Amino acid sequence: MKEDKEITIYDIARRLNISAATVSRSLKEHQSISTATRKKVHAMAKEMGYRTNSFARNLRTQQTNTLGLVVPRLNSYVVSSIIAGIENIASEYGYNIIISQSLGSAKKETSNINMMFDSRVDGLLVSLAYNAKNMDKFKMFFDKNIPVVFFDRGCEDPRSLNVVIDNYQNAYDITRHLAEQGCRRIMHITGDLSTNIYEDRCRGYKAALQDSGLSFNDDLLLVNDLTEKAGVEAGNHILQMTNKPDGVFAANDNCAAYCLQTLKEAGVKIPKEIAFAGFNNDPVSRIIEPNLTTVNYPCHEMGEVAAKCLIDHLSGTRTVHNANTIILRSEIIARASSLRN
Amino acid sequence: MKEDKEITIYDIARRLNISAATVSRSLKEHQSISTATRKKVHAMAKEMGYRTNSFARNLRTQQTNTLGLVVPRLNSYVVSSIIAGIENIASEYGYNIIISQSLGSAKKETSNINMMFDSRVDGLLVSLAYNAKNMDKFKMFFDKNIPVVFFDRGCEDPRSLNVVIDNYQNAYDITRHLAEQGCRRIMHITGDLSTNIYEDRCRGYKAALQDSGLSFNDDLLLVNDLTEKAGVEAGNHILQMTNKPDGVFAANDNCAAYCLQTLKEAGVKIPKEIAFAGFNNDPVSRIIEPNLTTVNYPCHEMGEVAAKCLIDHLSGTRTVHNANTIILRSEIIARASSLRN
């Protein structure tokens, strides 16, 4: 489909009637070449459609200036904001980003990781869909000293850096907050508990119950996929409970908002009868009425920090093994959905 | 940083005590090699960390199996949903995607496009931040017959395919709908009018006013950046107008929702005093009260169609020049924010 002929420095040299060495030095902005010549070479290179021969250079340097990105889902508020942060830093330092999503399939996740390896990325940025039972799928990266940085959902492998928030503490704080507002039966709605962020949030919820003198009760733990639809279903489920909760803490805002909306439409008074809290500070949390108490997730910053750590490692400024975990600041934002004064 | 030694087929051959040719054929699943041998070779290749030498292959075939993606902003509902659709198709056909965002900077957009060219993408998927005055920045792609597909925001160059929705018609329909609900002073809030999607929506709005016997009035056109903040400001602006609008059509849901919320908090009755409509069917449109009338934007499908067209072109199944524009189905969803019955 493409034209066969690739423009080389020899073609440019011929057209300008100068040596190939001069063209090469000009393109590299070598100071031994006059500004006028460099400008002339660049203009001709552009006109002729010359492309830096990054493949040949890659073969030589073994570097591709490419970072691989593996996430569960590209179109979520948190993930797309993290990616925007990653791109910000990567483009500043001249790195490309190759993206992939697993869509909840462990098989696709593994195949994405393999694809990144075959694409010879210089480093990998990963948010795993589920907790990896072992790190075998990253062995080839570790064996070749290709750095791997986990974000959002950390992993416990000592060869990698984690950039995360303190999910346990945030969940603890938000549950304590609901208890302080007078809630005695606090329900927790969350995702797959084999995923460490949900496991950590659930542990924080349970610890806060205990420290508030409340007992954990199985029928107050609801596990679903945290989607819009799951939120509506959770609301309908609560409406049918004989012994209803008087507080709900959902592991994301989207699910919390649609659950709250379903209850409200059925006449439940929020926060008087049921107080609500979510997680992420997603735009819906500021639109739902009453506005949703939530955790301010520093998504954009997380993307920037993860990318910077990886690039610093690649440039030799630091190594990802020095610190095993970077915990970003995050905190509760208390809003009308939980304030009973 | 990386280990120097790259595993070759010769290393695998030596370990298995077979010929390099047999290794090579096994890795390519050549039928002349027994299944047992092929399995043995694949297992050893995996164990030794062998990587398909895609660079060398790239140099030979001039293909990278990589698609470049240029968008204004990665973290918007529409764009992240489109990207999810693109990834879906690309990964199915074995293509990598390199992403970039221009963040409203024409300079960064041009540099992103150049970077994609230097990365030797097989094809380019583009949503321009602003209407390009000319297509010069894509000349190098056209010169090399590298296909370019524009999505969301089309372009008029005959060498490219556009995958878009009918922004003019949607804006026309939604404005007519507001007029039919009794609105006589309909305000339009929109983005930079030099961007074709906003220009088209504005033309549709004006045509609908005319066909409804309403006159266009300069003070009913508000141009901002359609963010959350701009929505709040628009609401405050409306509150201060002596001759207020009785209908608002905003070019995205996010801005519409925050504008509506600001007015509601000030005691304005929606839709009775001011009817509202947005665009995109963003999750906030289903959370805001009253729920927002909007246009159902087929984001995920747009990503899938754009990627499929590009890949079909690359595989020779079709060319992007055959059809200049593919218009996806989109339609109004009328909700409580505009229904006055």
Automatic annotation (TrEMBL), chains A, B:
GO terms for molecular function: DNA-binding transcription factor activity; transcription cis-regulatory region binding. Residues 7-61 form the HTH lacI-type domain. SMART domains: HTH_LACI. It comes from the Bacteria. Keywords: DNA-binding, Transcription, Transcription regulation. PANTHER family: HTH-TYPE TRANSCRIPTIONAL REGULATOR GALS, LACI-RELATED TRANSCRIPTIONAL REPRESSOR. This is LacI family transcriptional regulator. It comes from Pinibacter aurantiacus. The lineage of its organism: Bacteria, Pseudomonadati, Bacteroidota, Chitinophagia, Chitinophagales.
